[in-house]
Amino acid sequence: MGKKDPRIDAYIAKSADFAKPILTHLRELVHAACPDVEETMKWSFPNFMYKGMFCSIASFKAHCAFGFWKASLIFGEGKAAAADDKGSMGHFGRLTAPSDLPKDKELLAYIKEAVRLNDAGISKARPRPKVKKELVVPSYFMLALKKNKKALAAFEGFSYSHKKEYLEWITEAKTDETRQRRIATALEWMAEGKSRNWQYMNC
After folding, report:
1. Which residues lie below 8 Å from residue 4, measured CB to CB, with a gap of 6+?
2. Domain positions in the chain
3. CA-based nearest residue to 48, from 64, 62, 33
4. Taking each helix axis from N to C terminus, what angle separates 176-191 and 160-171, rounded to the nearest 10 degrees?
């Protein structure tokens, strides 16, 4: 028999009212499709384990997400990539009501396929690591950074991806006014040690 984790009960209980029936229903489907599933919390949201990780649920302020660890093998590369591009963590878009989900029969088939893949020990192919392009810091931004020692120290200590997020946000501004406003905000956030998307880190 599978194992339920009381931390997931607490997670669902603390979620917004719209999210509770979605998360509860998905959890029930996972247990129905995989009686030996084990629950755990990873990255602050519920994950389901069966001979390794295979799917997860998550709740945010205005939507829920349901995703598979081996989505490209379940849906095919194209469909999985298209789902990833929708701007939500899972593979079924932003779920705001149980009616946003596919039919139970379809979801159960996906979950059983995920279980089969883990049973067979089939792993998703690891993509070749992309060569990182050298980040170019515009002179106007570097000048602003040098005027704020805390922000400069934080920026220099950031990972490649965090630096890139800030640089893209600033350089993609369409007007000088917007660019200056973003620079001011960036300096404020960096002086506090915050990444560009810090608001979403603890969702």
Report:
1. 31, 39
2. 6-119, 139-200
3. 33
4. 150
